[in-house]
Design goal:
Number of domains: 2
Radius of gyration: 16 Å
Shape: elongated
Order of helices and strands: EHEHHHHEHHEE
CATH class of the largest domain: Mainly Alpha
CATH superfamily of the largest domain: Winged helix-like DNA-binding domain superfamily/Winged helix DNA-binding domain
Number of strands: 5
CATH topology of the largest domain: Arc Repressor Mutant, subunit A
Structural class: mainly alpha
Strand content: 5-15%
Strand order of the largest sheet: 3-5-4
Largest sheet: 3 strands, antiparallel
Length: 115
């Protein structure tokens, strides 16, 4: 059994957190599943995780550090970073195209864990 953890602040994460407490395999990356299935072949890992080389080559972006891992609004990011909304939107688009940021529903932005 596998479980992907969610935010500790989200009621929707209670189920997966309960599974992890009961012994489910914690999944943070594709490598976690491949390891459990004993498919840790480099060829399989590269094929199952496309774009990871590009993400690894991208240096830590200041905005990613400021975002944290919970979904956050553009207004909250403006307050945290001091950037204008226009500056943030440009940076967020760049990070989204690189696979480092996702847009969950509700006009929010969320950092994507890189594994």
């Amino acid at each position: 059994m596998f479980a992907i953890p969610g935010s500790i602040h989200s009621p929707q994460s209670r189920g997966c957190h309960a599974l992890i407490r009961q012994g489910a395999k914690l999944v943070e990356t594709v490598g976690d599943v491949l390891e459990e299935l004993q498919l840790e072949d480099a060829t399989v890992s590269a094929a199952a995780n496309p774009g990871s080389e590009a993400a690894d080559a991208m240096p830590e972006h200041r905005l990613l550090r400021d975002m944290g891992y919970d979904p956050v609004s553009l207004d909250a990011l403006c307050a945290r970073t001091g950037f204008s909304a226009a500056e943030l939107q440009a940076q967020l688009l760049e990070l989204e195209l690189a696979g480092s940021v996702a847009r969950p529903p509700g006009g929010l932005f969320q950092r994507v864990a890189q594994g």
